Amino acid sequence: MIHRKAERTPDPVANAGRVRIGQLYVKVVEAIGLPSKDVIANSITSDPFVKLTLTGRWSHGQELQATKLTKRKSRTLNPRWHETFVFNVCAPGAELLLEVFNAGQLTQQATKLGQVTVPLVDLMDQRRHNKWLDLQLPPTLHRHGLNNDARAGRIHVLLHYKFARVAEFLSHFMAEERYTAPWPPFKAAILYNNFWILLDDLWPYLEVIWSISPTLNWDHPSRSSFVLLAILWMCLYITWVPVLLHVAMIGMTIKNLCVIAGSSTSTLASSSSMDGSNHHDEPPRVYSLPQGFHHITDKMAQVTTDAETKMTLQRVQNNMAWWSGVIKAIELMFSWEDFFYTLQILIALIVSCILHVLIPNQYLLMVLVVYLFTMWTVPFGLITRMIYGLKQGLSSLLHQQRLRAHHEKTMESSRSAAAAAAAASTGGPFMDTPGSSSRSRRGLSMSRNEVVSRNEHRFGAAATALSRRFVEEMNNGSSSAR
């Protein structure tokens, strides 16, 4: 469902400041045999209009769109528009999506009647294309016994894609649009939910910090003295600190595996036992939050804020979700939820610990500095982009050459057929002249166009007659029911 008045989007080239490759000229001529949607005053009709969308996707999946609309034609299944549109093409591999909608009589919501996609790669011969395209019927539309198949009529369009070959080749080397995260808009419920999720993720680490504070405050002198001696030892033997950190992380990972194995064993034992004892879940976690916090969060949903405040709250809401995702990603490394992923982390920790034992830390630090310097200074992304662009650009040039060769071959065969027909009609090839050959080719082309036009009009007349017949059957059924 779309709203009819909200579908004219601006040109993405003007918004993004991108260099256009070329222009696509589209003329929507007519459509025939459209499916009907409205049943009003015992007549089956539609109020169709066409939505044209030029779309292209980047490698990260985001879409760049330009949308235009035709005028609405009232109460017809064979509309004629004769409207021309121009699209600025700014992304290689773009597609033209043609969607036919019914504007509706009782509501402002439009319903899709059919659609068809035209890849621009099929128009790269830079010729004018006169196409009759079969519309595909959306699965949500049922025509109640009226030709229930996948077809939804046909649409007649004229297409011409004009572009500079150099610009099209260089477009494969252009940097893509930056990825923007599809964060949801601000809502008090989402902000409230994100806060509790983040607090639930941070609570175990906050408890650890709070448990350390008595030691730092010398509430337990013996424990504080032991921690002080351990810190002094690490200062004297600083080279062994990375090894101790690796051993601690390895021990934590193995401990988590043992806990998971023990819990699974106890679960199997409890499920197999028939003693009838009840299993009690852990009590919910209780948070000791500041006084008045719940009152603030309850009032937040009732406050009407301005646009700037909503933008600030949206950033807070999305940052909470981002930090929660970071914490979950770190916990996933050691939680054995993904067994093979945690196993890879464990093997990497063991190898790194062995390297720290065998190789002095200054050499490992030197290797790390060289690696980071190489990653930050050598433009690996640019080199990869250049190789990919060169590959895609050469493929595009070869495809254009194949299209031109196919077009020349088709034209040559049509000229040969026209010459043969003209020679047969005039009595032989020796009596043929350039003027007569040209007239014969024009006559042959006009006759072909007339045949196609007659067939299309017959198709439209048959669709209209079928609609009238269906209305008569409905009227007869209602009268017999009375």
From TrEMBL:
UniProt-annotated stretches for the region Disordered: 425-451
PROSITE patterns on file: C2 (PS50004)
Pfam family, one: C2
Parts of the chain that traverse the membrane: 226-247, 339-359, 365-388
C2 domain span: 4-133
Keyword Transmembrane attached: yes
Tree of life domain: Eukaryota
Entry annotated with the keyword Transmembrane: yes
UniProt entry keywords in alphabetical sequence: Membrane, Transmembrane, Transmembrane helix
GO MF term (any one): lipid binding
A GO CC term assigned to this protein in UniProt: endoplasmic reticulum
Coiled coil segments of this chain: none
InterPro entries on file: C2_dom, C2_domain_sf, Synaptotagmin_plant
Name this polypeptide is given: C2 domain-containing protein
